Amino acid sequence: MLKKCMGDPSLIIPTEDIGIKDSLSYEEIPVQILDRQVRKLRTKEVASVKVLWKNQFVEEATWEGEEDMKKRYPHLFETGEISDQDEVPSTTGLPDCRLNYRPSTGSSFM
Fold first, then answer.
1. What's the DSSP call for residue 69?
2. Looking at the record's lineage, which domain of life comes first (predicted)?
3. In which element (H, E) is residue 67 found?
4. What pLDDT is attached to residue 69?
5. Which of 37, 42, 81, 99 has the highest local Cβ count within 10 Å?
6. How many CA atoms does the CB half-sphere of 71 hold within 13 Å?
């Protein structure tokens, strides 16, 4: 037998805060740069930044091209620092669990 779904009211975002247009679309506004990475391709290096967007959770942050973000949102890069991801509260209420990868030196699995 199915049970009634009880939603979490803390996860509901009021539409007044988002600013929905007549076309039922809205513009995401970046709030903070969380991390930076450089990927090496065969002939070039591509820099990316992890962006926290307004009205989104930390878990939903996305990787965007650094040059594009600098052109569109230069105010995010003025401080010269990338914020620590631990300073941004997680909305899940769970501790931030990260895997620590350490290459093994032996042939044993554990």
1. H
2. Eukaryota
3. helix 66-72
4. 94
5. 37
6. 5
Amino acid found at 41: L
Give residue 98's pLDDT: 40
Residue 8, in any domain of the structure: no
Q: Is 37 part of a structural domain of the chain? A: yes
Q: C-alpha angle 68/25/13, rounded to 5°?
A: 100
Give the CA count within 13 Å in the CB-facing half-sphere of 42: 0
Rounded to the nearest 5°, which phi and psi values hold at 17?
-75, -25
Q: How many CB atoms lie within 10 A of CB 57?
A: 14
Average pLDDT of adjacent 10-residue blocks, the chain of 110 residues:
83 71 82 94 95 90 95 85 51 43 45
Q: Are 48 and 6 in contact (CB under 8 A)?
A: no
CB 69 within 8 A of CB 75: no
The CATH number for 42's domain is 2.40.50.40
Residue 16 lies in a domain: no
